[in-house]
Amino acid sequence: MNQPSQHPHSVVQEFHPRAREALANPQIRANFRKAMDGLMTKRQTAFEGWELEALRDLGANIRQRALSKLPDLLEQLEANLTANGVQVHWANDGDEACQIIRDICVAREAKKVIKGKSMVSEEMELNHYLEAQGIEALESDLGEYIVQLAEETPSHIIMPAIHKNTTEISDLLHDKTGTERSHDVNYLTASARQQLREKFMQADVGVSGVNFAVAETGTLCLVENEGNGRMTTTAPACHIAVTGIEKVLEKLDDVPPLLALLTRSATGQHITTYFNMISRPRQPGEQDGPEAVHLVLVDNGRSSIYQDNELLETLRCIRCGACMNHCPVYTRVGGHTYGTTYPGPIGSILMPHLLGLDETQHMPTASSLCGACGEVCPVKIPIPDLLVRLRRESVDGDKLRVSEVRGHGVKRRRVESLAWLGWQWMHSRPQLYRLGTAVSARLRALVPQKLGAWTRYRSAPRLAPQTLHQMMQKRTPTAANTSQQPHREATR
Amino acid sequence: MTRETLRILYFYSGIAVDSTSTVLQTPEQVKIIMTDAIRVYPPKPRKVYFYGTCLIDLFYPDAGLAGVQLLEREGIEVVFPQNQTCCGQPAYTSGYHDEARAVAASQLGLFPDDWPIVVPSGSCGGMMRKHYPDLFRGTPQADSANAVAGRVWELTDFLLNVCHIKLDDLGEPTTVALHTSCSARREMGVADVGPRLLDQLKNVTRVEQARPEECCGFGGTFAVRHPEISGAMVTDKVESMITAGAPEFVTTDCGCLMNIAGCAEKAERPLTGQHILSFLWQRVSTPAPGNDDGAQS
Amino acid sequence: MSAREQILQRLRERRDGPVPEVPASLTTSMVRDWSAAEKLDRFQQLMESVHGEVHRTSATDWIDTLADVLEKRGARNLLIPRLHDIGAQILASDHPGLPELLHYDAPIEDWRPTLFNDVDAAVTSTRGAIAETGTLIVWPTADEPRLMSLVPPVHIAILEADQIFSTFQEAIALQNWASRMPTNALLVSGPSKTADIEQTLAYGVHGPKELIVIVVGAD
Ligand code: SF4
């Protein structure tokens, strides 16, 4: 498997080897292609009959409005949650968030943590942290459970085990849990249910993510199909929700349009099986539910993204994964190749802020800027523009604009800068350009037929015997741009 | 004729028939999320500026010439400013915005009159229309950049929706696949134009390859920075067209043309390609033999 | 300074100044002109499309349907609410076809293994449904606790036919959710499922394997 290693520098260096490995692995390519094709079709079907563009505008508006009031809404959320009996914690970064969760566990003498799906906890590497503290952290989302058993990381933010096929999963469950090998997905699922039910009964603490946090009512919303999220947030005596500070919404009324966009964009479902809205811990007289509910608000780089009007748009993301499903690069190399918690287009515009451009310099370039991501994003994040912005910051390429992402300028190389300067020199001097291009057209036989990376997969482009400039000049010898021949018909 | 920024604000609703809509002027503050502007097509002008793009200039001048001839066939006078070089896009997408701005600045003065600027490429068109305003924001050239941006048209879009071109097919029966470039499709929003033009040609059977909207893997410097990924993408594109039964393809952008046709040639696969403008011109004209050199890759 | 103060300060002292205001001009308003019959049809169609089972019954015969459904599955017992009217009706009916009736009237800590291992089915009320997505609105209460609709392998939900809303937004508005959210509010659309193994759907991964909706007053 092309698993990312832990050290970030090697993440950059390993991108190409891992991409090659993934491209050469027919199993991986087939798994992703099949899954992504299915997801794209399902999304399209799910939006049939909807005014999708209007809905996307609305989604973007709601998220942008929430961001425009972010500090106020966070305070409002905290106040309402606190009034509801939920304890709110703030963490500058992943380590602080891990410590908060550990402290809660330690105070409760909790030894067993069951987890619902949470990308923020992946970002914080919570599982490793807790295990190092002697606290067991078990994933309960089936996909996450599979990935955890395989000692891997998720390859997709919605479908963590999408890189594996049934045979691989069956073998894994057999090796790790003794489940009999089978191609019957129902059997495999039922056996996982059995194993995880035991764990739910024993768990002291449940840790979950949050899809939307509603400031108006102090409500945490979770979107899921399996029911493990409900289980995680209900069965143990303590529930800790962990989320990025950007997930807040202003009003309850903002939820339905975003929910409609999220599930349809992510998996092509009209709605997921469960939409779970939690506002309080167990109240007097209630027979179940956690007696303590905590919310950990994690910054981890988000407030720096927030500083800039353009980069801010990144924070509108509702983590639907549609940009990955539609990305031709992601589809071919899979999630692990990127080597980061969030892969694909969203990863490429988000991870540079979390880890610094120096540690993620491969990401903004790993795109043909085809725009498929931006076209499907339910909250209209201009992903290609943000990729260009990050490319610009990687080379400190604009003297008129600030570069502010950590590690900016990391890709600035003397040779490349000089090449672009030369390019500029030639292309901003029209006479020189015309002379140069005319000469190269004349000398086209001398142009090398091997152009390194290009000709590995394609023949070299051939220069035409004369340039369009020359052709046009011949047609209208007296400076074409002043000729006044109205309605010249060229039809022969 | 400048681009109108209109926004339709719908009330949220699931189904088209249920919605109420209002047309509003975009307030400056919400521009940030109002990414789609509705274009208002001008009446057919007497004259246009032709911006040939550097790839066409060097590698596919026949496509540029075909575009010029198609415009002239519509009775439009074509002005080709000899001082044009490059729109600046290669440097822009590579992050070298100072260099891109310098080159783009040298182009802003080429279009003094209020004629439309037509570009036989979605990608260069997209650069000029969509990115010039950002590139020059806060600079002394901002106004002229905005003015230029608002006058830029992708050429096939212009032929179809401004000239209302009618194509009488004089060619032999043939089958083609169309690859609309990602920038034509998504930046310029003209995905429906290529099919509509080709479908006017009575002897041309247009076949659709699998995943027609997927990128061919060109992406400018992407193709050389990430050769394996780009190579996998273009190989898939070539195969999808062959599987669809197309011996040749046409495309709206020379980057894609160079990429797809180059890949087919290198891999010795039975697929050739040309720019859609070259193809259209051949279909409606009766070119003297040998007049289309450089067309086939 | 606490992390809280640091974060809020960073958000308030933005380098680009305050975020440009975004007008809430795109206020959402739902326009759906479905008749009661259309809403029920749509609800049923969508619920069935995600593997839910829907039975239309009258105000008098729904308990027969309940007994039927349970018998078919060989349920040994049924968890019912004590206070809610549906519980009262079930008790009062003394229906011979019903299995042993259980109440969730002790804290989960007192009977966790029994609930997890030995309860075959539970019946709960609903606060209505949503036609647009084929969704039940379930608000657990002290009488119908949260795990009741989650842990037993079969969840039977009783839906009043005249409580079907067009959209989620309409339900929120008409039931005035924003004024006070319950401890836990749920939207339930079908039985628990997963597609995490090669995109193949499998039901009952963590929650109920079956969701059966008995629509009362649909005659
Ligand atoms: S960037 Fe947009 S498409 Fe991608 S995960 Fe976020 S919301 Fe979804």
Description:
The complex is a heterotrimer of chains A (492), B (297) and C (219). Chain A has 492 residues and is of the alpha/beta class. Chain A has helices at 8-13, 15-24, 26-46, 52-68, 70-84, 94-107, 119-124, 126-132, 142-149, 166-177, 185-202, 228-234, 255-267, 302-305, 322-325, 328-333, 344-355, 372-376, 383-394, 414-427, 430-442, 453-457, 468-475, and strands spanning 87-91, 112-115, 136-139, 205-208, 212-214, 219-224, 238-244, 248-249, 274-278, 292-298. The termini of chain A are far apart. With 297 residues, chain B is an alpha/beta fold. Chain B has 3 domains: 1-38, no CATH class; 47-161; 174-284, 3-Layer(aba) Sandwich (Rossmann fold), CATH 3.40.50. Chain B is built from 13 helices and 10 strands. Chain B has helices at residues 54-58, 61-73, 89-93, 97-108, 122-136, 142-151, 155-161, 182-187, 193-198, 222-225, 227-243, 254-266, 276-284, and strands spanning 6-10, 21-25, 47-50, 77-79, 117-119, 152-154, 174-179, 204-207, 248-251, 272-275. A 4-stranded parallel sheet of chain B has the order 4-3-5-6, with helices on both faces. In chain B, strands 8-7-9-10 form a 4-stranded parallel sheet. In chain B, helix 12 (254-266) links the parallel strand 9 and strand 10 (272-275). Chain C has a single domain (34-191, 201-216), classed as 3-Layer(aba) Sandwich (Rossmann fold). In chain C, the strands form 4 sheets. Chain C has a 4-stranded parallel sheet with strand order 1-12-7-4. Classes of the chains: A alpha/beta (492), B alpha/beta (297), C alpha/beta (219). The B-C interface holds B 9-15, 18-20, 24, 27-30, 32-33 and C 20-23, 25-33, 132, 167, 169. Strand 9 (274-278) of chain A pairs antiparallel with strand 9 of chain C, so a sheet runs across the interface. Iron/sulfur cluster binds next to helix 15 and helix 17 of chain A.
